[in-house]
Amino acid sequence: MTVEMPGQQPEAAPPPQPATARRRARRRPKPARSVKTTILLGLIVLAPVAAIPAYGYYTNIIEPMQIKMVRVNDTLFRMEDYVERMRFLEVESQAAGRKVDFGSDPFRMLDEMRDDELIRQGSPRMGVTASEQEVTNAIKERLAALPREGEQTTPEELEQNFKELYKQHLSEVNLSDEKYRKLMQANVLRRKLREALSDRVPSVAEHAHVMGIKVDEVQQTDDVKKRLTGGEDFGAVARAISTDFDSKENRGDLGWMPRRALDRQLDQAAFEVPLNETSEPIFVDRGFWIIRVLGREVRNVEGKAKEKLKDRALLDWLEEERKANTVEVYFDSDRYAYVIDKVREYRRPTAPQQQQQPGQPQ
């Protein structure tokens, strides 16, 4: 019921809305959700989609680089450390005009990583250290940034030249200053430890005067033996076909070698093969040797022979350390294939690639 006050005119009722207006009102959409709710729902929907490339990046790039490769006591080297070392070897080899041998260098590099760490951990017990200045001098020597005899250059100019060379070299090998210095520290420690172990080298030992020819394939040894039995001069054959530098340059004459100065197989043959007779093929380090022993006698250990026995003393020390420490090497075909791919991926062309012509093979 509507109550009317005296003197007040009753309010007019609103005019009825047309049916079409009422239908449009019913079809009008409900108020939109808040912006925050909409964004949250969008993130929930997009998160799995965005996670796909992130997961792929982790599983294909990040995770493989964390795979264990070498452990020496509490020090662990992962795939990323190994790839860096192999890439470093690749660049250094290219600079020296050599090629990385993927059949043996990956295994040799694992041994080197292991032995470098054994040397780093064991050197203090031997009284061997490497100062920062010794490491810097080793880098300068490697980059040929030391003053040459008779060169008129100020110390400031030499230092500036070294800094420029070093910066360029770090860019080429793709290593930080810290990691490169650690590699050079290992070289310094290895060299100093080798000298510290020289007291293990005897002053007198039995020697064998060895002639040797090295070839790459076992089939080539048949040709070598035929030529030698046919009367050809050993030195001439070595000069013509030997793949060992010393053998080729010295016409097969390896000199007087004391016991244990040569690789184990060669050393055994050098003191067992009858004098002046040609040996059977001896497999050593990616090649096959044919040797001939001209004489044996007790001699003073000096010159090149002494340096060879210093190398042997260091190898003996490393073998002792491997047995005395916890050493683990993790390697299989998958790890091998991965590191080869990563090194080749990084490989830089040695010469501008020519534009391929139609019909040329890939």
Category from helices, strands and their pairing: alpha+beta
Q: What is the C-level CATH assignment of the domain at 68-146 and 154-198 and 317-346? A: Mainly Alpha
Helix content: 40-55%
- Report the span from N to C terminus: 99 Å
* Number of H- or I-type helical stretches: 13
Uncertain spans: 1-8, 350-362
CATH architecture of the domain at 68-146 and 154-198 and 317-346: Orthogonal Bundle
How much of the sequence lies in strands comes to 5-15%
**Form type:** globular
Give me the CATH fold name of the domain at 68-146 and 154-198 and 317-346: Triger factor/SurA peptide-binding fold
Radius of gyration: 37 Å
Overall pLDDT, averaged? 84
The main sheet orders its strands as: 4-3-6-5
The largest pleated sheet is described as: 4 strands, antiparallel
SSE succession: HHEEHHHHHEHHHEHEEHEH
Counting DSSP E segments of at least 2 residues, the number of strands comes to 7
Task: Report on this structure.
53% of the residues lie in helices and 12% in strands. With 362 residues, the chain is α+β, with helices and mostly antiparallel strands. Among the domains are: 68-146 and 154-198 and 317-346, Triger factor/SurA peptide-binding fold (Orthogonal Bundle); 205-301, Chitinase A, domain 3. The strands form two sheets. A four-stranded antiparallel β-sheet has the order 4-3-6-5. A three-stranded antiparallel β-sheet has the order 2-1-7. Helix 5 packs across helix 7. The chain is globular. 18% of the residues are buried. Mean pLDDT is 84; it is low at 1-8 and 350-362.
